[in-house]
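Handout, section 4.2: multi-component inputs.
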Amino acid sequence: MMDAATRPARLPDRLPNRAGLGLKPEHYGHVLEHRPDIGFFEVHAENYMGAGGPPHRYLESVAKLYPLSLHGVGLSIGAARPLDRVHLSRLRTLVERYKPQSFSEHLAWSTHDTGFLNDLLPLPYTDETLARVIDHVDEAQQAIGQRLLLENPSTYVLFEDSTIDEIDFLEEIAARTGCGLLLDVNNVMVSSVNHRLDPHTYMDRFPVGRIGEIHLAGYDETVDGAGERLLIDAHGSPVKADVMALYEHALARTGPVPTLIEWDNDVPDFATLQAEAVRAEARIAREAGRRNRQTRAA
Amino acid sequence: MGLAASQEDFAQALLHAERPMPAGITTARGQADAARFAVYRNNVHVGLTKALAQRFPVTEQLVGAAFFTAMARLYAQDNKPASPRIIDYGDDFPAFIAAFEPAAELAYLADVASLEAAWTRAYHAADAGLLDLSVLAAVAPDALPNLRLAAHPSAALIRSPHPVGSIWGAHQSATVPPMEAWDAETVLVVRPDMHVNVHIIPAQDGIFAQALFGGAPLGEAAEAAFAHEPAFDFGAALVGLHALGAFAGIHQGDVP
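Output:
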């Protein structure tokens, strides 16, 4: 456990190549009292959009002690309709207040006339959607004044209209907007199984130079209408063995990368979360060691 | 189909279970699959229902999880969050409950839900200091009746013909004690600092506070309270409400 007195007075300006955890209200007290040795914390931006109160007070304290990743779940970057300016200004307010080391959002949409649909919905990959997403990422980065990391989605359906491969789609967005990518390894597994793709091939093609953060999570499993295996991105259990193996495969290409354990439903006690972080961090350290040995050998 | 039309089609199919799947979706085997599309429908409904259960835990305990989930699903069917700021979701759930026929027997349910909605609003409300009594003491006595007080941003009143504060309080511990009396209650929900407090206050103090929160000057608010209860104690009510953190200060412009 890191002694508070020896903690560097200044936090780094980017997330460290370590494991991080989602900061949950039930753990505010524990984190501030015990100051566990965690690489960084991540919060959902939308949970900190109230005017005041305990969430901001706790987050202010935590952000003084740990690097912070701000993760948006409601910007609806993949929507046909324009981005919500009010929501963009709320995000900017948060970024200015907490100066997070990273800001990320999803390649998905969630807005409709009847209101916010509260899920990360899929979009077809076409020239039209590509142009739309590029405009939205440009606008978002300009509005919040910070580079954005765009996360690959987990999906349950495909679109007949899609003409562009998902990785080409993400790579083109990054190339045209300068945004980074958030590689969600669990999403890769979920989408690969759901669409009969090879997750390792996906990983081998992913533009590693763009990756600013990795997400890991636990999936649920069911079957679809034809009895085929269907994985659900559930965030309510430990990281499964096949996802951990895929993560190791990814790390061999990316090298050490800030890695978040996502556990948002049925949140366990802090020790259980910390054990998950330790599992991920051991793999980061192993990869760092492997690279050091290679460098020395050369 | 363009992107806007296809997302409209997708959203309509999500929101209405009786509608066919959206056009243009498929699977690796080349056939759309209803079970797969149902994952999205389920995510939307379960997500919203869970958000309501988190915000209204006592309401859920009072009717049981199965009844609550059914009621919440019906609400969510026609009431989506107005924005991605999901912490606001359910502000009008108490009004929905008040008009929800199957819950009509539990006349107090909507008021308990109102208390819980006020609790989360107080939790996320703007932070503010409290009225400085010495500022009030410095006001000339003849100027006092015209003085208006600013409500604390977190403060809210629930006036109910049912013992809502007692019901809510009884459900804060693992074992719910039996209710000893069944009287009307006025509840002040307020967060002077880090903790949201729920206070049962005298009815006349509630009338006084409600008038003040509505922008009435002290004199007019006191008259309203007197009209309800001739034994209303102006000084005690003002000092008492202040002590609970109900006021943030004196209205700008009213300071002599």
